[in-house]
Write a structure and sequence with these properties.
The complex is a heterodimer of chains A (78) and B (392). Chain A has one domain. Chain A is built from three helices and four strands. The radius of gyration of chain A is 11 Å and the shape is globular. Chain B is mainly α and 392 residues long. Chain B is 77% helix and 0% strand. In chain B, α2 runs antiparallel to α14, α7 runs antiparallel to α9 and α16 packs across α20. The radius of gyration of chain B is 23 Å and the shape is globular. Classes of the chains: A alpha+beta (78), B mainly alpha (392). At the A-B interface, α1 and α2 of A face α3, α6, α14 and α19 of B.
Chain lengths: 78, 392
């Protein structure tokens, strides 16, 4: 499973990444976690508001920092 | 290895500064004192009653306002008049965190309503930032605060329309092949009127807690309100508490608190540094900093077209972290900057900066970026000039 965090480097995006890492740890799952910082690539996903979370190429949410619980529900659905 | 080079350069730099800065002369002791006194002024007068409520409001907007509903207005098939109007003011809702402006701009430009609304939003987003307007009104006065907000909204539409017509042929071509963007799912919301009251109560607290007694002695309704301001603030505070208990769930409140804290944590340290820098370089109004007031008065004093232009260009190039433009402007005005050029700087500063221009260029290309910059600088210069002539 590949998880990408889309964001241009502001604290919200860092927080999103941390929440994802925490959720992965709590669920005991592993995933490839990458950060997408280039505006071109972010725009390429059709994302308008960062931070955004992309799992296996699909935009799962955008515009808010997902809490650890929210990330866990996303991951459990995969 | 890179870190070592940095230290290697830093040590002689600090050494030279330590050697040659004229610490013993009064001239230098003054600015440090000014910096600390300015910081004290912010801590005493603006922090509790203005900044703190403002951060809660910004947090509330970020968490509770349905942003997807606003984004719908930027679609390729959306009503153009609405798209421009929404672009002009939605910065307050969408751009609370300045880092959302660029992806949103890129989205509107490439997949949405086109270059007009996109550049309108690009300009007004940072300029109409809710925290910045609140602090500007508080520190620099209501007139500059209102002028800044109104100027940003009005000129964003003008700039957007100008960009649209200048590049009309290209826009028409693009419209034929534009892919629609994913607007995202709309979230379940509490009724609009409840959200409205929630925000109104916070704004009420903010407005009445800061009601100035400047017009004391003149009587009339202004002064009457001043006398009962704490009663009014208390009433709004009580309504807010009631609203929170009645209509808000616990984890919503937690989300709100976390978001507020995130903004504060991100913005306050930079504001702190901005105040100190403004104090050192420019001094508080009526006092001298490192930069002699005569330099400031010569370059940007009065209301000449040159002063306004200089302020615009300087503002456009310089990067201002959110809110830092306020203490810097306070210092500049105190050191002799005219109110017209001050507005010019407020209108050109937050929206543009050198690094920011490079990113915009990667989205729109060099030519359009240069036209955009030229439009912003001229709008800012003209508005500053007009404001200075009438309200200076």
């Amino acid at each position: 499973m590949k998880i990408e965090v889309l964001g241009m480097g502001c604290p919200k995006c860092r927080q999103t990444k941390e929440n994802i890492q925490a959720a992965l740890a709590e669920l005991g799952r592993e995933a490839e976690l990458a950060e997408v910082k280039s505006l071109k690539e972010i725009a390429g996903y059709g994302v308008m508001m960062t931070p955004a979370v992309v799992i296996d190429g699909e935009v799962k949410l955008s515009g808010k920092v997902p809490g650890v619980e929210a990330v866990k529900s996303l991951l459990e659905a995969e | 290895m890179k870190k070592q080079w940095l230290t290697f350069l830093l040590i002689p730099a600090v050494f030279l500064l330590a050697c040659f800065l004229p610490f013993s002369s009064w001239r230098f002791g003054g600015p440090i004192k000014e910096a600390l006194l300015m910081l004290q002024e912010y801590a005493r007068e603006h922090f509790l009653l203005c900044l703190v409520p403002a951060f809660f409001i910004a947090g509330g907007i970020s968490v509770f306002v349905n942003q997807q509903a606003v984004i719908k207005y930027f679609g390729a098939s959306a009503n153009k008049v609405l798209a421009y109007s929404v672009a002009a003011v939605s910065g307050t809702i969408l751009a609370v965190c300045s880092c959302t402006v660029l992806p949103l701009f890129s989205g509107i430009y490439r997949r949405g309503a086109g270059i007009g609304p996109a550049t309108a939003f690009l300009y007004s987003g940072p300029a109409i930032n809710v925290l910045a307007i609140i602090l500007t009104a508080r520190v620099l006065g209501m007139e500059l605060g209102v002028a800044r907000a109104a100027g940003a909204a009005v000129f964003s539409v003008v700039i957007g329309l100008a960009m649209h017509f200048i590049f009309l042929k290209e826009e028409r071509e693009k419209a034929k092949t534009a892919a629609a963007f994913a607007a995202g799912a709309e979230e379940e919301d509490r009724p609009l009127w409840r959200n409205g009251l929630y925000f109104a109560s916070m704004v009420g607290i903010l407005v009445f807690a800061n009601w100035s007694g400047a017009a004391r002695g003149e009587g009339g309704i202004w002064e009457f309100i001043f006398r009962i301001k704490w009663v009014l603030t208390g009433i709004f505070l009580a309504s807010l508490v009631g609203i929170l208990i009645a209509w808000f769930k616990k984890d919503e409140l937690k989300e709100w608190a976390v978001c507020t804290w995130t903004f504060a944590r991100q913005i306050l340290p930079l504001l702190f540094i901005g105040v100190l820098v403004a104090g050192v370089l420019l001094g508080r109004p009526g006092h001298e900093g490192l930069i002699p007031s005569s330099w400031v008065a010569n370059l940007v004093g009065g209301n000449s077209l040159f002063a306004n232009l200089f302020a615009s260009v300087a503002g456009a190039l310089t990067y201002f972290a959110t809110l830092t433009e306020v203490p810097i402007l306070q210092g500049l005005i105190g050191a002799g900057m005219g109110r017209g050029p001050a507005l010019a700087l407020l209108l050109a500063g937050p929206a543009l900066s050198l690094p920011n221009m490079l990113v915009i260029r990667s989205v729109m290309g060099t030519k359009k970026t240069l036209v955009f910059i030229a439009l912003v600088v001229s709008m800012a210069t003209v508005s500053g000039y007009i404001f200075g002539s009438v309200w200076g």
